[in-house]
Amino acid sequence: MNMDQSKIPQATAKRLPLYYRFLKNLHASGKQRVSSAELSDAVKVDSATIRRDFSYFGALGKKGYGYNVNYLLSFFSKTLNQDEMTSVALIGVGNLGTAFLHYNFIKNNNTKISMAFDISENKIGTDVGGVPVYDLDELESRFPADIPVAILTVPAQAAQSITDRLVKLGIKGILNFTPARLNVPGHIRIHHIDLAVELQSLVYFLKHYSTEEKMV
Amino acid sequence: MNMDQSKIPQATAKRLPLYYRFLKNLHASGKQRVSSAELSDAVKVDSATIRRDFSYFGALGKKGYGYNVNYLLSFFSKTLNQDEMTSVALIGVGNLGTAFLHYNFIKNNNTKISMAFDISENKIGTDVGGVPVYDLDELESRFPADIPVAILTVPAQAAQSITDRLVKLGIKGILNFTPARLNVPGHIRIHHIDLAVELQSLVYFLKHYSTEEKMV
């Protein structure tokens, strides 16, 4: 497919990993085809949105047939670079960081936390979920050139200074779980997941919106 | 302001808690006005989006002056129901759940985790971050009628059955941190934060998008 990937809207791109996971399950259960209604029910995205998303990939379902599971799966697999492993570093092995290390994205084939850093003597030198924890003071000497992504699970007040160090080390993207808004050069991508904002936003939606129009 | 809240686009509504937090900080530091460029720099949302968002609230900045901090703050405070406390229950006191309990949204004035549930004997009967942990078997007898929101941090395979029980208890919204997609009646709102999908999505964006167009 010669499609220009950068033409896919960001909102669509955000849903790709979700579609991919569900299609893998479908495939594993031996299913050959799926309708946008079935997909919609499973991933909780309305079927008009699914049809529009899929049309960007040139995957056009047939009426009364639906989509070919194998075709979609191999397309998503390629698009999501499933055959290429991305190493990730985690900074901050508190409760949230520990949760990530134990989880370690076992359902993702293409991302793996390969090292973690902390300042606590109780944690330095241990393995958490099979991942070695190093001294944050050794970040510069330990950090390999082939890690493009870091997960930041440190206290908010430490977030910017550690980010500055990661930027010097050539990081390309940061998944920021701290409440801090990070300042980085324009070529670095930050995805910010602020747990307090997520909760406040849910409460706001409960008060102000009909729940028939769901978000993803 | 007689504006119909339900006319605010959901993407705008999602940014309200972010704006509100930053404006509180500005106000605390004695600032009287703020430009959309300053706001943009602080909250990492482009200023055209900020201006469009604010226009929905009838807050129209003046050229060369910007926005009045007090006005915005009192408007957001009212809109986000800052004077009304929402109690939240947390189900699943593992690493992720423990992180939430210690955090307990201290920066939110209007949301508070008031009780937690788990199945582990080591945790039942303890306080984590000042929040009592009860036996999940006692969910039906302990759960008060005035808790509209639950945070779900349980293993994926337990998510749907616990959700079914919460639905029977009259829950209105669930913040779902499990990889499971939950089936609920249409009047219940689910916000799903799938950590594996967030990581995969960041990796995808690093490979396919120019990083100058940031997401929030």
From TrEMBL, chains A, B:
CoA-binding domain boundaries: 81-181
Keywords assigned by UniProt, alphabetized: Cytoplasm, DNA-binding, NAD, Repressor, Transcription, Transcription regulation
Name used for this protein in its record: Redox-sensing transcriptional repressor Rex
Organism of this sequence: Bacillus gobiensis
A biological process term (GO) from this entry: negative regulation of DNA-templated transcription
SUPFAM superfamilies: NAD(P)-binding Rossmann-fold domains (SSF51735), Winged helix' DNA-binding domain (SSF46785)
UniProt record similarity statement: Belongs to the transcriptional regulatory Rex family.
Binding site for NAD(+): 92-97
Cellular-component GO terms for this entry: cytoplasm
Lineage: Bacteria, Bacillati, Bacillota, Bacilli, Bacillales
Compartments, as annotated in UniProt: Cytoplasm
Gene name, Swiss-Prot/TrEMBL: rex
Any matching Pfam family: Put_DNA-bind_N
Signal peptide start and end residues: none
InterPro entries hit by this protein: CoA-bd (IPR003781), NAD(P)-bd_dom_sf (IPR036291), Rex_bacilli-type (IPR058203), Rex_DNA-bd_C_dom (IPR009718), Tscrpt_rep_Rex (IPR022876), WH-like_DNA-bd_sf (IPR036388), WH_DNA-bd_sf (IPR036390)
Subunit-structure text: Homodimer.
